[in-house]
Structures are given as C-alpha cells and as structure tokens.
Sequence to fold (485 residues):
Amino acid sequence: MTLRPQQPASAAGASGPASAPAPLVTIDALGKKCPIPIIMLAERIREVPVGQTIAVLADDPAARTDVPAWCMMKSQEYVTATNLETGWSFVVRRSY
Amino acid sequence: MAYFDAASAEPLHPAARQALLAALEDGWADPARLHREGRRARLLLDEARERTAAMLGCRPDELSFTGSGTQACQLAVLGAVTARQSAARGPGHVVVSAVEHSSVLNAAGWLERGGTAVTVTGVDRAGRADLAGLTAAIGRERTVLACLQAANQEVGTLQPAAEAARACQAAGVPLLVDAAAMTGRLPVPAGWSLLTASAHKWGGPPGVGVLAVRKGTRWRAPLPAGDREAGRSPGFPDVPAIVAAAAALAAFEEEREAREPALRALSDRIRSALPQLVPDCAVHGDPAASLPHIVTFSCLYIDGEALVTELDKAGFSVSSGSACVADSQQPSHVLEAMGVLTHGNVRLSLPRDASQEAVEGFLLALPTIVTRLRDTVTGAASGSQEVTA
Fold:
C-alpha cells in the first residue's frame, strides 16, 4: 500500500531527465537527514545562473516532500525526481 | 509554562475526575453479573452508553466502548470488511484517504497483505480529501468499505465527510468516519455507517474508545467473539473510565459554545502572527475550514526534534510531525500527502483552558529559538554561509 497516491502535477516534470540538459551543479547530500539537504540546496543554488538547473542527491525519505515544498516556499522551479540505487536525484531550476 | 498538545490528550476534565472517583466506588464489579454489585456497575455502564450515544447521534445499542481509539478503528475497519468478503465472494476493495489516522491505515495495510485491494486517495495542499477521487474509487467493483475522517488530527482541516457519506450511500458502500479529532468540538457529520472516537481527546481518561455501528450496517467480529459490548469489543469493560468519559463529553459539549470561539480566536492570532515573526515559516491547513484548536506550521532549515526540545525547555509542550519526533525515521504521512514541508514542524493544539498570556508567551519565545537553531544547524551543514536564497 503506497501512501503517496498522487504526485502534484508540477512534480511530474514535462521534460524528462533524458532530454533535459544535465544540471550544472550536483549536491551530494546522501546520508544526510533533513533539513541538511535543503540547507545545502539553499546555499548552493546561487552557484548556477538563473534559468539553469541544480541537482540534489539525497536518501532521507523526507527530502521527497521537502525539496518540492522548499521550491514552492522559495518560488524556485521543481523540475523532476529520479530514483537512484539508494535515494533520489532531485532537479531544481533557479528562477531568480 | 503551557501545554499545547490537546490533540494528543486533552487534560482530564474535572467532571471526569469526579465521575471517575465515584464510579471507582460503585462501578468496579462485573456488569455482566446478576448480583447487586454487578447490577450497579451495569446501571452505570448503561447510563454512560445512553449519554454518549445521544451526544454522538446514535442509538445506545449501536455503540460499543473499546480499549482505545486505535482499537475502535481497527475493529471498525476489520469488522466491516470481514462481514462483506468471504471465500465465496473473494477479496474486496477498501478505499482510505491518505491522511487517515495511522490506526485506519495500518488496518487497511493488514487487510491488503491478506489479499484485499486498497486504494489510497489523495488530499489537496490544505489536507482536504479529494472528494471526486474518493467517489471514483468507491465506484470500483467489490468495494466493501470507504474511510474518511471527520477532521484531520495533525493539521485540523475539516473533511467533506457528509458529502462522502452521500456518495457512499448512493454506491451502497459503508463509510467509516473516524471522528476522534472532532468529537466534542464540532457536530459530527451525518451519514456515517461506522463511527469511531477516543475519550482522551475530549478530556476523558485514556483507554476508552468508541465504536458505533449504524443499524443495518453489516459487521462481523474479526477476532474471537465475546459477549461483551454487543460482541464487538472483547474483554471486561473499564466501567469507571467509561463513566468518566461520558461525564467529560457531556461537560465538554456543554462548554463548547463558550470555549471553541475563544480557542479559534487564539488560533487565528497564532496563524496571523507567525509569518511576521518567523521568516520562512509555512502555516498549514485551511483556516476557513478547520478545527478551532489546532495550528500546524513548519520552519525551514530546522530539525523538528530540536525545535520540540527547545520549546519544551522554554516551557511549551508541543508535538511535531517531523521525522524522528514522530516515533520513526519517516516524517508524518499527513504532511507528506499534503506536499508541505516536513522538517521543522510543530503542531500546537490548544487545551480548553489555553490563555491569551500563554499564546503571547509562545509567540515571544519562538522567534529567538528558531534563530538560534538556524544558526546552529546552518553551521553544521557547511560553515556559516547565510541561508536566505
């Protein structure tokens, strides 16, 4: 029984990772508990130009909710999430 | 010092304490026995059942007391499904909203492992159940039960339970309404087939749950059947605690009109003040359709466990849906289903005697604690760069 019935429409991401250009920066937050992956994302998103993407690798289940929630709170664009062997890769586009 | 965790347990109401002490004197005997002591206990139990049933809008013979709200939910789900699926008919289909209490979700998960199909329907960002999704799901063949709470226990959002009841009635599907968070605070929605509640949420003692099964709703004991509580709940009932629970509900209902607007005013004050006092703070739920006493929010860049601990040191008792605090490594399934920030989460649930002073004290203490924790946790993440992107 999955308790994640419906991803928000925005989370589906029109552009899949295969067709989209690779993120300019990848943050490795594997093994780190929230809020650390979110703090790292907030600190480092300014390393990519506006309009470009940054990836966060994380394996804390809370990141699946907290990365898109952070994007909504901070008006950044949540692009997509893909499964890794352990954890997920979350891609975020810098909006401003 | 302030206790803001009434949604976990409302402090024992004085009416409950008084009734409990009296019933310990008069109601200790086995109510199933025919001797005078047994008859006295029986009388107390029957009176408590009649009072409780009247307040919940059902008949006394529809209502059984259980050992907890969790047990009531388990018996409601398992009993309703057991009655409607069999070897001959094959497994059924159960629909639950994603934000039900864990006791309902765990019972559904238990059924699923035994072959029953389970559909979990979603909620919006405020935590309100997707009525269209739920209505579509109950249309599936062999649907034997739908479950929708009256209000959410973590964010206070009221659910469209009465509308769901109409849809279920039209589809011939029984509906379990878990009213644990709402009972005694707002009128329980009509139209349910099964109803559950828990006495310590309304100022009764812990260890008393309520299961009501509407006449005409099929229900079969999922456990070896006993003869207590109409065969619905096993074991010798705790008559003194049940008497206290009924007394607390009567008092809580009586005080409702005076209490709940006052609690709502305090909740509104917190909701409107938080975004000004704490940067990067999201207040959850729907203030226009919520329980009067619950306010839930999340602060970016803070560990929920640390926040609860610091608030406790400052004299404020709160709960949190963040991972680690919620008894597991997983964050609250309610916050996840809503898609809102799960870290740095706090649920304030105001008890009946919550004061303006206590609320103002909390609003004064919180910003300092949040700033201090953000400094600490940001330093731990990577040096001391400021986080305000």
